[in-house]
Write a structure and sequence with these properties.
- The protein is α+β, with helices and mostly antiparallel strands.
- The protein folds into 2 domains: 1-29; 31-198, Glutaredoxin (3-Layer(aba) Sandwich).
- Helix content is 37%, strand content 24%.
- It has helices at 3-26, 76-91, 112-122, 133-142, 186-198; strands spanning 34-40, 46-49, 52-55, 63-69, 98-104, 127-129, 147-149, 161-163, 167-170, 176-180.
- Strands 1-10-9-4-5-6 form a 6-stranded mixed β-sheet. A two-stranded antiparallel sheet has the order 2-3. It has a two-stranded antiparallel ribbon with strand order 7-8.
- β5 (98-104), α3 (112-122) and β6 form a beta-alpha-beta unit.
- The longest helix has 24 residues, at 3-26.
- 30% of the residues are buried.
């Protein structure tokens, strides 16, 4: 292949690569969760952490990753929060653009101090919140979250809580933009978070 043919070949390859890059740029992102477009407006809330009242409006300008569970949850809650921790670790400095909030649906056992300490065990930046039974019921209903306190064991008094396992993501204006089912990998969560940052 002479120099002229080499230059033509390189120009064709460069043009094809450029066309492919443009095609990929203009393709809608592939979401692992359920992307909501346009985002759905959601109500605010004010609940309690160990440090005092926390209002959802405090996080305007950040994405909020919201998860409802309870600290006595044997499997779903810890694996979900551990997955979020790993996904945010993979984001590096961009992790600061997201705030994870864990809301306990078991306020009788999970005081603000207990909920906060539980969330912080996964990541010191994670917030753990709770409130009165009435406040939690109203907040869960507003966000479409199901939970049910099961009957206590007659001997020990111990009880479990059935609850939704989905994770909700609010955009920088507090509107619902994304939901994740239980079981996504940290890599899949990271991909969706990067999609949000590119919007």
């Amino acid at each position: 292949m002479n120099n002229r043919q080499t230059l033509i070949f390189m120009a064709v390859v460069a043009a094809l690569m450029g066309a492919l890059a443009l095609y990929q740029f203009f393709q809608p992102p592939r979401w692992n969760g359920s992307h909501i477009s346009p985002p759905a407006p959601m109500p605010g809330f004010s609940l309690q952490s160990a440090a005092g009242a926390v209002d959802l409006q405090q996080f305007a300008g950040k994405y909020v990753i919201l998860y409802f569970g309870y600290t006595g949850c044997p499997d779903v809650c810890p694996t979900t929060l551990a997955g979020l921790r790993e996904a945010l670790r993979r984001l590096g400095a961009n992790a600061d653009k997201f705030q994870v909030i864990f809301v306990s649906v078991d306020p009788a056992r999970d005081t603000p101090q207990i909920a906060s300490a539980y969330a912080a065990r996964f990541n010191p930046a994670f917030l753990g919140l709770t409130g009165s039974a009435e406040e939690i019921a109203a907040t869960a209903k507003a966000f479409g979250v199901y939970y049910k306190l099961n009957d206590p064991d007659p001997k020990t008094g111990f009880y479990t809580v059935d609850h939704s396992a989905s994770v909700l993501v609010l955009d920088r204006q507090g509107a619902l933009i994304l939901t994740w089912p239980y079981g996504l990998t940290p890599v899949e969560i990271e991909e969706d978070l990067r999609n949000l940052l590119r919007q």
